[in-house]
Design a protein that fits this description.
The structure is a homodimer. Helix content of chain A is about 25%, strand content about 25%. Chain A is built from 10 helices and 22 strands. The mean pLDDT of chain A is about 95. The interface between A and B is large, with 51 and 51 residues.
């Protein structure tokens, strides 16, 4: 999917953009790529430097009936248009969403807002398993308050289709729907790279160094297909999100063209909106921290989004994880109705700076009654966490 | 002004709280304080450790007529009640505000919202002189759009009072008002400390070390009367704001009681709301940076508060200052209708960590379409500033 018109690349930038030319193999010795055009014509192209920017593809569960019309995925602009077309082309009163990640939750809101009855289903018994239990419960409550049903721990066996009406059949449950959205995550498109012997990283993403170079010095990779260094663990990770993809795109262009740009890595900052809630995270949760070898302490606190006397305040939930050996801040999560999306950036920067919880607790964060309590919720969490370190 | 009831201190915490006992002198040799109660009775009290938490007092310009009834200041809760009482006790249709700082602007909004015609006046020709010109112009425009008039560069000569109606007389202008609010800043209440020979800091605030100890090891000071270290310059500064005052209060209590708490200092983070705008700053502006000996580069950018396709987006203005010698981030300012108050905390933490602009430009900040562009406005500013360093 090309957001800019093909002509712009060809005429204004002098780039010979070839759409409809799927590459099927890389010959690293010959420094060439090969494939067959959509019209069936074989093609090959030589390179000095090759950039693989193949993105990621939605995971389709191995579920009989997943090929039925009305079972949709959402990754590309074309997928979005297909869903819109489907909704406009018939009476769609209900939707089942398989999966409960960012995309599933954002689509849950979008479909419920369109007036559909929405049910969400997945095999894992925990809702938002990466989020601290108390915070995940707040999100689940918000979704249920909008009459969306959440079915966790449901093993699906098949999708049935009788006359355009769909049924998601689970072991102990059958969910009826006019439309099924599959949003169970994505996987990196790394098959061509792997077939060419290029090293892979976590989740079979393409392993790159901090200059986006793969194990082959003439081949680069950037975007959702490539891995990154996690600044907190120092280890490779695969977190396919927009900012890193965009940043890597700029950096790789510089590096391929002879400038030298090194990226420092990611801390896994993410935010999404679901109905009236903002849900954000940065760094590691306690389980991830333990897996990376940290000994951890954790707090979960509740505070207010504005000064106590200010009208319109709501509850903000913050959880924070620290390293009991070094006192380092390892991660922060936040859920609330306002003031969450950008507040998460303060601990995100602290993670980049490898700050201790004590150092972070001393930072001079903004305060005015309409925007928060005197002590920002992140500072209150840090002060509480300090007592456990 | 005691926010908690006196009984709570006396009965629940065992603190012999003496209100109505103004201290007039400190005898450091005898380790005692002396004064006269509001009932005219002399008193004295010995101390092992003394904490001076005398706060700050509004500056009253040396203006004939400033003593007229209807000329008000706002610092304490009692001041606020006095203003309310004045507004409720008569027909007040118009107000003149002398000064254009945080309090002046917040009161401008409050009085305009109550239906008053509001004019603001001050001698300095620049509106918000600490704010980058382009950003200050956005704030001025917002205020004027609410029919508030702004008179900068006006030297006031007196306040006249004829039958409860006030006139603020300037050299080339006379402003009529039913009420005048004087909001020209505050000064630290350090006279007693100075008289006792305790060292003073910037703006005659009481000089303290990072443990809130004054030049006398038995005397501490905290709150708006005391100074602090500015983390960016390493020099002393006096920025009387709530978070530092509160934090210093907690730290000094620990230190007086034998724990050892050192504060790292402030970066001057502040935010205020005026009508629909959020105005925030952290660190140094270009002039302050130059005064502290830095050679600087600066950018001012405009970007959007949400992703380009997302409805409801508005303009965010960001200015950023960096050190051309070391590449260090020195300060950031921001004005916008949403998403400013907490966004400022990302550069604030970066200042504490002494990050370079390049390091900050690589941070992994949150992104989702309802909350911002893929590149947070702070990152866009940092990317632009990098080109100048």
């Amino acid at each position: 999917m090309i957001v800019r018109k093909v002509d712009v690349f060809r005429e204004k930038q002098g780039i010979n953009l070839l759409t409809g030319h799927p590459v099927t193999s890389i010959d690293r010795a010959a420094k060439s790529v090969k494939g067959t055009t959509l019209e069936g014509k074989p093609f090959a192209a030589l390179y000095d430097k090759l950039l693989i920017a193949t993105g990621a593809t939605p995971i389709l569960p191995d579920l009989p009936g997943i090929e039925h019309p009305g079972v949709m995925v959402l990754k590309t602009l074309a997928d979005g248009r297909r869903i819109k077309q489907y909704l406009n082309g018939r009476t769609v009163r209900s939707a089942v969403i398989i999966g409960m990640g960012y995309i599933a939750l954002e689509m849950c809101e979008a479909l419920q807002t369109l007036g559909l009855e929405v049910a969400m289903v997945k095999p894992n018994p925990r809702f938002l398993p990466w989020l601290k239990e108390e915070l995940a419960a707040v999100v689940a409550e918000e979704i249920r308050a909008k009459s969306v049903t959440i079915h966790t721990g449901c093993r699906m066996t098949r999708i049935d289709n009788s006359g355009g009406h769909l049924q998601v059949v689970c072991e102990d449950l059958t969910l009826d729907a006019d439309m099924v959205l599959v949003a169970t995550g994505v996987l990196p498109n790394s098959e061509i790279a792997a077939a060419a012997g290029i090293e892979l990283g976590p989740n079979n993403s393409i392993a790159v160094d901090n200059r986006l170079m793969t194990s082959d010095p003439h081949v680069y990779a950037a975007g959702d297909c490539a891995d990154a260094v996690h600044v907190v663990t120092g280890q490779k990770t695969w977190i396919p999100l927009a900012l890193r993809a965009n940043r890597a795109g700029w950096a790789v262009a510089d590096n391929v063209c002879g400038r030298d740009i090194a990226l420092s890595g990611v801390v896994g900052t993410a935010v999404f909106k679901v109905f009236d809630l903002q849900v954000a995270r940065t760094g590691l949760n306690r389980k991830e921290a333990a897996a990376a070898g940290f000994e951890t302490a954790e707090v979960a606190i509740k505070t207010r989004s504005r000064a106590h006397a200010h009208p319109g305040a709501s509850t903000i939930h913050v959880s924070m994880v620290g390293d009991t050996n070094t006192g380092r801040l390892l991660g922060t999560q936040m859920v609330g109705h306002e003031g969450v999306a950008h507040r998460i950036n303060a601990p995100a920067v602290a993670l980049h700076a490898q700050m201790t919880v004590e150092q972070f607790s001393q930072t001079d964060l903004s305060y005015a009654p309409p925007f928060g309590p005197t002590w920002d919720p992140c500072l209150t969490a840090a002060n509480q966490l300090l007592k456990k370190l």
